[in-house]
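Colleagues,

For the teaching module next term, I've prepared a clean inverse folding example: a structure given as tokens, and then the sequence designed for it. I'd like students to try predicting residues themselves before seeing the answer, so please don't circulate the second half yet.
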């Protein structure tokens, strides 16, 4: 793959790691290879770097006084760890757990699995803007609710739910925990981290490497690992820790947070440019993302052509966008998120997701527009 000629607009699936982060990863992996649990100088050296990385995560997000981090293999594992562990540990307080219909499968499917264990799961609807209405949460909450998990930024549309308002509602129920999947939010948009009991994210969406992630949680929350093994990561996650991956994650997080404001403005310009184009071709496209959403994501539907054929056509010309989010693209081509927003089955079946990174340029968007126009002229209407 000759990367120079590629316009990569699928950064929500994964993005290019920062070069200095890859360099730091290689240095730690090669020269600080000790097992951080080992009681000798090589272990101490690795343990020191791990501690540095662990401190850097909550301090980058300015929650170091109240929160700490467990390193995981990514947001999927972080979501599974917190949700399964907390639901099972605190089920004597109540069996009701609340999430939304727009969550990533790594949250939705945990809730479905917990339902099979006897929990009463509530799936809050999405508004036409793709967010969760805090009033719906307020109505669903009850004395027996022990866990709420609502994502900060939706990974298809960029819709942002009001976590501040929802955390205030959950606070009225002191026995209930509030978790948020912040995979598409951390290091990108403003989030009230300190109000959350726990949140998850992945390294490879913010310039670190695949296979790294974290669960950040309020210090006094007890949640045992549901895997059997050693006592690593404070007993939350057994297994020898990936020091190099965790170290790289912490550096990428620090940089993303530092540059977040500037990057947000950069990608907003690119997103606006694509929106203007789509609006100029309203015979062919309908925009699904709300105007107020994260500028990193843009979802739209094709009104006459097949989305899969359009995405393939773009790919043949060196432009990478996604037909549905990468997590479900192998199984089916319909977006349950767009359906849950009430935009209809047809719109949901022909979704394109474009997602931006600070390294994208206006030239990338110009090239997309030129190729898209050429494709629209060439592809026959298939619906
Ligand atoms: N949650 C959200 C919102 C995501 O976008 C993703 C990645 N698509 C995940 C969780 C899972 O992340 P990972 O595949 O890195 O575990």
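(Answer key — instructors only)
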């Amino acid at each position: 793959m000759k990367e120079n000629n590629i316009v990569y607009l699928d950064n929500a699936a994964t993005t290019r790691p920062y070069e200095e982060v890859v360099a730091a990863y290689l240095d730690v992996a090669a020269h600080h290879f000790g097992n951080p649990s080992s009681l000798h100088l090589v272990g101490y050296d690795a343990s020191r770097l791990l501690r540095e990385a662990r401190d850097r995560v909550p301090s980058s997000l300015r929650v170091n006084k109240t929160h700490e981090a467990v390193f995981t293999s990514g947001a999927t594992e972080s979501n599974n760890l917190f949700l399964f562990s907390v639901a099972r540990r605190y089920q004597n307080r109540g069996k009701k757990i609340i999430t939304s219909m727009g969550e990533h499968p790594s949250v939705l499917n945990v809730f479905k699995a917990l339902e099979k264990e006897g929990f009463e799961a509530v799936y809050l609807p999405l508004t036409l803007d793709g967010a969760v209405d805090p009033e719906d949460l307020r109505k669903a909450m009850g004395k027996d609710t022990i866990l709420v998990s609502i994502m900060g930024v939706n990974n298809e549309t960029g819709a942002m739910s009001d976590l501040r308002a929802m955390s205030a509602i959950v606070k009225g129920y002191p026995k209930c925990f509030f978790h948020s999947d912040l995979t598409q939010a951390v290091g990108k948009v403003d989030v009230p981290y300190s109000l959350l009991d726990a949140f998850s994210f992945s390294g490879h969406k913010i310039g670190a490497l695949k296979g790294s992630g974290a669960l950040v949680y309020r210090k006094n929350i007890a949640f045992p690992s549901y895997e059997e093994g050693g006592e690593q990561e404070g007993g939350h996650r057994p297994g020898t820790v990936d020091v190099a991956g965790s170290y790289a994650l912490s550096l990428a997080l620090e940089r993303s947070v530092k540059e977040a404001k500037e990057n947000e403005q950069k990608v907003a310009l690119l997103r606006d440019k694509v929106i203007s184009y789509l609006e100029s071709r309203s015979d062919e496209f309908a925009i699904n993302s709300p105007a107020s959403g994260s500028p990193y994501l843009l979802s739209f539907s094709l009104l006459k052509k097949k989305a899969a054929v359009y995405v393939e056509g773009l790919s043949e010309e060196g432009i990478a966008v996604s037909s549905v989010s990468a997590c479900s693209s192998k199984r089916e081509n319909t977006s349950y998120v767009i359906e849950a927003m009430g935009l209809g089955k047809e719109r949901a079946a022909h979704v394109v997701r474009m997602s931006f990174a600070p390294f994208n340029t206006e030239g990338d968007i110009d090239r997309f527009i030129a190729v898209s126009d050429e494709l629209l002229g060439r592809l026959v209407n298939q619906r």
